[in-house]
Specification:
By secondary structure, this protein is an alpha/beta fold. It is built from 10 helices and 8 strands. An 8-stranded parallel beta sheet has the order 6-5-4-3-2-1-8-7.
Length: 291
């Protein structure tokens, strides 16, 4: 399958794009607290870029299952200095937020796009901010805030339902004046979804790719990988030991034409994306692999 469409305003690469996750939070599921300070966060963002990350996605509010909302002023306090410093250093940054005011301030500080896990549902003002900025907007499949999402994981057919609900978010965005070339879709693995739902979505990504918009996959270190890799006693593998499985997911989704992945550790995922791209180029030249 050919690569999905590319959005405006983000780096153009000849492989699956790799977005580095920068959680400026004390309570994220994988690395909460490690980069909560501005200096530590900026250093980690620079390190991810040095490792090859195409974009650094800065988030100041945890979206782990059960997480509580934080005041908007606190989210701005966490995010804005980091976005400013990384952008001033020449990095492409996006802001991971569901709030229009946070997005607007981050874009003014140099962010080049918005990663909205609510797909525009949490804040009706987000569409106007994105339309006015003309920037990329990740619309993730979402059914409710983190504190409630476990109770919302009910589907007739998760692939069809996610497709249809994302189609509605696309229509709403277009109706609000956002251009199609600004939009990126994310099926929201782990958000109001069981492990079985996640695997079903990964197995049938062609259904989402048929929407003819770039698709971003965020599987990095998520709980369904920890359960897959559980030890003989059934204890899930810890988040920081799931990077190998994350890179395997990157290879799988890059092979079917996904535009990008969002990951905690970019290096191995860039390697995986490069291998898939090299294989695709070989097939294009020769119709198959050489001996």
């Amino acid at each position: 399958m050919p690569p999905s469409a590319r959005p405006v305003g983000l780096p153009a690469v000849d492989r699956c794009l790799v977005m580095g996750i920068l959680n400026v939070t004390p309570d994220s599921f994988s690395d909460g607290g490690r980069f909560a300070g501005i200096a530590a966060a900026v250093a980690h963002g620079l390190a991810m870029a040095a490792a090859g990350a195409d974009v650094v996605d800065v988030g100041g509010e945890s979206t782990r299952p059960g997480a509580q909302r934080i005041p908007v002023d606190e989210e701005i306090r966490r995010v804005l200095p980091v976005v400013t410093e990384l952008s001033d250093a020449g990095l492409s940054t996006t802001v991971d937020t569901t709030r229009a005011v946070v997005a607007a301030q981050a874009l003014a500080a140099g962010a080049v796009g918005v990663n909205d896990v609510s797909g525009g549902l949490a804040d009706p003002g987000m569409a106007r901010v994105v339309a006015d900025a003309g920037c990329p907007w990740v619309l993730m499949h979402w059914r409710g805030h983190s504190r409630d999402m476990a109770s919302l994981a009910s589907y007739d057919d998760v692939v069809v339902d996610v497709h249809d609900e994302l189609r509605c978010r696309v229509d709403a965005a277009l109706g609000a004046g956002v251009r199609a070339e600004q939009l990126i879709l994310d099926p929201g693995l782990g958000f109001a979804k069981s492990a079985e739902h996640n695997w079903a979505l990964l197995d049938r990504l062609d259904v989402l790719l048929d929407l003819s918009l770039p698709v971003l996959i965020g599987a990095s270190r998520k709980a369904f990988l920890g359960r897959l890799l559980a030890d003989e006693t059934g204890i899930a593998r810890p988040p920081d030991q799931r990077d190998g499985a994350t890179a395997a997911i990157t290879a799988l989704v890059a092979e079917v034409g996904v535009w990008g992945v969002r990951v905690h550790e970019p290096a191995a995922n860039i390697d995986a994306a490069q291998v898939v791209a090299a294989a695709a180029r070989t097939r294009a030249r020769s119709g198959g692999f050489d001996d």
